[in-house]
Amino acid sequence: MRIGGDRVILSNEDNGLRLAETLATPNLVKTERLSMLKFFDGMPDADTVQKVDNNLDFMHGMEAFLNKIPATSVYGLQESIKEVVGLPP
After folding, report:
1. What pLDDT is stored for residue 8 in this prediction?
2. pLDDT per residue as tens digits for the range 29-83
3. Which of 8-12, 62-66, 83-87 shows the lowest mean pLDDT across its residues?
4. For residue 77, what are the CA distances in angstroms to 9, 54, 80, 83?
5. Which of 57 and 12 is assigned the larger pLDDT?
6. What pLDDT is attached to residue 56?
7. Cα 58 from chain centroid (whole Å)
8. Contact in structure between 40 and 27 (CB atoms under 8 Å)
9. Nearest alpha carbon to residue 52 among 39, 34, 36, 35
10. Of 40, 62, 41, 37, which Cα lies nearest the Cα of 52?
């Protein structure tokens, strides 16, 4: 299979399959938040799986927090109006 002119993505040379480096998962991936992620043959090691799982938990917590900010703003606005108008709490 050829894509983009002379660039070979998959080839069947010497009765073996060779993948281009752009398709292969690197053994080490450095990230700013998660530090170093390690892979072997495209599969993450146990430490990498734990880091990514913890990061997903963190992101879901942040998403829940940020999604509630508009509701708390509306509640605060309602309470302020009640106070200005003189309604009981």
Report:
1. 46
2. 898 889 899 998 888 999 999 999 999 999 999 999 999 998 889 988 888 888 8
3. 8-12
4. 59, 35, 5, 10
5. 57
6. 95
7. 10
8. yes
9. 34
10. 37
b (16+ CB within 10 A) / e for 2-28: eeeeeeeeeeeeeeeeeeeeeeeeeee
CB count, 10 Å around CB of 29?
14
**HEC secondary structure over the chain:** CECCCCCECEEEECCEEEECCCCCCCCEEEECCCEEEEEECCEECHHHHHHHHHHHHHHHHHHHHHHHHHHHHHHHHHHHHHHHHCCCC
> What is the rounded distance in angstroms from the CA atom of residue 76 to the CA atom of residue 74?
5
Residue range 7-35: average pLDDT?
67
Which residue is it, tokens 């040379």?
13
C-alpha 67/C-alpha 59 separation (Å) is 12
Length of the chain in residues, anyone? 89
